[in-house]
Amino acid sequence: MPRQFKTPPVGLNLFMSAFRFKKPVPEVLRAVFPLTLVLAAGVLLITYVPALTTTLPRWFGR
Fold first, then answer.
1. Domain of 8?
2. What's the structural domain count of the chain?
3. Among the four 13, 31, 45, 57, which has the fewest Cβ within 10 Å?
4. Which residues contact 53 (CB under 8 A, 6 or more apart)?
C-alpha cells in the first residue's frame, strides 16, 4: 500500500469508501491512485514554481 494512504485522513477515507461501496481496499486504491498522482503533481508545481502562487496576490495587492 503506498505511503500516502497510511496517513489518518486519507487512510480513513480509503477504508470507509471500501466499506460503503462493498469493494476490497486494493480495488478502491487502484481507483483513486490516478487522482492521487494528479494531486501530487499539483503540490510539486506549487512548491517548486513559486510564480504560480505569488503572481495573483501581487497583482491584487497593489
1. 3-60
2. 1
3. 57
4. 46
How far apart CA 58 and CA 14 sit, in angstroms, is: 38
- List C-alpha distances in Å: 26 to 20, 29, 44: 14, 5, 26
CA–CA separation, 49 and 9 (whole Å): 27
Cα separation, 48 vs 33, whole angstroms: 22
Per-10-residue mean pLDDT of the chain, 62 residues long, equals 56 85 91 85 90 85 71
| pLDDT (0 to 100) of residue 48 | 94
Longest Cα separation, the chain: 53
Distance of CA 53 to the CA centre of its chain: 18
